[in-house]
Automatic annotation (TrEMBL):
UniProt domain HTH lysR-type: residue ranges: 10-67
PROSITE patterns, sorted: HTH_LYSR (PS50931)
Superkingdom assignment: Bacteria
Species whose genome carries this gene: Crenobacter intestini
GO molecular function, one term: DNA-binding transcription factor activity
Entry annotated with the keyword Ribosomal protein: no
Pfam families: HTH_1, LysR_substrate
Protein name: LysR family transcriptional regulator
InterPro entries hit by this protein: LysR-type_TF, LysR_HTH_N, LysR_subst-bd, WH-like_DNA-bd_sf, WH_DNA-bd_sf
Length: 321
């Protein structure tokens, strides 16, 4: 005899996933619509199947099709979500940036050059002059996952190859690696080959300062290559200044290099190895996804982070609903 399903473990997030899955009849399309990864949606579907004691969606000739139990639940789930939305938003005051005294908070790595954050501060203070804004550095002592979950941080900027599946994400921009060096460096005339790159002295960030392992380190390890790191620096923004009195090289994003090439006597060359572009994205927690104020702030982040990105590197994206 089948045990009675326990719906005590169902939260609003699971109901929303189930509703979109039954609408789309596809894990991949549901993931795209929800702004989640496919593995995250698949995990939610497994939980729903366990709770319901029914597959809910099964494979058919043209994809997935709801079971009888799934069809029966769909109408109920839609009605519950509609009532919750009505209870939550009817009568709630609309967010008005010009009048808001909201305290916004964002965390980002220090290898995101200051020009990006400067434009963000300028835009937010112009559109919401009564609001405040705090910025946190992603470092070894900052629990950014906990900060998102608790609401201490509204969103985080990252570029790690695999962001956490349970967080919402929106692509910001893509950029490639270049090699920064002082003006007059011998390699600017002779050219930068892979061999010259590996034999040169390098300035590198300290291991704890870059967070999850970066694309460059993974590439060198995979190809069994090793560069000669002569000095380490705890903050990315110190590196360009430390290049001025030596022939060290510093590998960084093109936008970071372009920013400092306008300020200091430094120049850059393309990285001689073929690495994939670096993808920057915005992360936020489900708890703040439906907040009008947080949504407005995310829109300002996305706008400013893409404002001066070359069209060839710009990632087209519409913020998920």
């Amino acid at each position: 005899m089948r045990s009675i399903p326990s719906w005590d473990n169902v939260d609003i997030h699971l109901l929303k996933v189930l509703n979109v899955l039954l609408n789309e009849c596809s894990v991949s399309r549901a993931a795209l619509k929800l702004g989640l990864s496919q593995p995250a949606v698949s995990t939610a579907l497994r939980r729903l199947r366990d709770i319901a004691g029914d597959p809910l969606l099964v494979r058919g000739r043209f994809g997935m099709t709801p079971t009888e139990r799934g069809v029966a639940l769909h109408a109920t789930v839609r009605a519950v979500l509609e009532k919750l939305e009505l209870m939550t938003f009817v009568g709630a005051p609309a967010f008005e940036a010009a009048q808001s005294r909201q305290a916004f908070s964002i965390a980002s790595p220090d290898y995101l050059h200051a020009g990006h954050l400067g434009r963000l501060v300028g835009r937010v203070t112009r559109l919401a002059p009564r609001a405040t804004m705090a910025m946190h550095a992603l470092g070894p002592e900052y629990d950014w996952l906990g900060a998102l979950e608790s609401g201490e941080a509204d969103c985080v900027i990252g570029n790690w190859p695999e962001p956490p599946e349970h967080l919402r994400t929106a692509p910001l921009f893509e950029t490639d690696f270049v090699v920064l060096m002082r003006s007059g460096h011998p390699l600017l005339k002779s050219g930068l080959t892979t061999q010259a790159y590996l034999e040169a002295g390098h300035l590198a960030p300290t291991p704890h300062s870059v967070g999850p392992r970066g694309s460059l380190d993974m590439y060198l390890s995979r190809e069994r290559l090793r560069r000669h790191v002569v000095a380490q620096v705890p903050y990315f923004n110190l590196a360009p200044y430390l290049l001025l009195q030596s022939d060290l090289l510093f590998t960084c994003s093109r936008q970071f290099a372009e920013h400092y090439a306008e300020l200091l006597p430094v120049e850059f060359l393309p990285l001689p190895m073929a690495l994939p572009s670096v993808c920057y994205y915005l992360l936020w927690h489900e708890r703040s996804h439906y907040s009008e104020a947080d949504r407005w702030f995310r829109e300002q982040v996305i706008f400013t982070m893409r404002e001066e990105v070359p069209p060839s590197l710009r990632t087209q994206h519409v913020l998920p609903a």
